[in-house]
């Protein structure tokens, strides 16, 4: 048990030096925020912002239009989490019935609103949903035969990491956020909006039927975007799906609001090839699937 009284007597600059020596694993800071209000305050006031500006300086500058004294929508902790954390199958909106979770496994998964995390013994971890960070359960047991550059089949196997986590967790795959990827997602009339999402294929999950390439992202100036006007002017109903990155309890379905490219289409069982959800702070979670064979 950590004696927080010792740290409460230390000056802030000393505590900050200790905190910045624990930045190798993003989960460490999330755990530290639960230890005491002092740690939580320092992380929220200084650490998340500094880490974001060091890790993703170009994105931060663009999101804030160069005004570094401002804060991104949803706060620095949410942006930091978005860089490293996959939303998981639940917050990406994948249909629960599709999940490869039998009755015998449900007891240890918890509810989808509060998935089991690495911080099982902690009751409250901030209002930015850091409590949803779960242990990265990526496994590389899925192999895929590939064809060499000459077009001749070979025996080389390429391993692809496949995650089984239902809740949010440290992401596998690309962590950079790209506007180019965001442009591929939105319908043509929204191309003036600025959406950053992680690179393809994101964090790959499998439910036993098909692969889900989970992605996450963020809109720049979401309240000024055409997507926002479409959602608000059209009086689109929110769905009961929590944002994986901030405290928003409801999100909008971008697919049903016709904000995504229609060319993506559906699988023969009616499941959309792409689904995406956005919260009031402009955080986006969603999933690509493999293209259906009949298209």
Automatic annotation (TrEMBL):
Stored InterPro entries: EID1-like, F-box-like_dom_sf
Top-rank taxon, per record: Eukaryota
Name of the protein in its database record: Empfindlicher im dunkelroten licht 1 family protein
Source organism per UniProt: Heracleum sosnowskyi
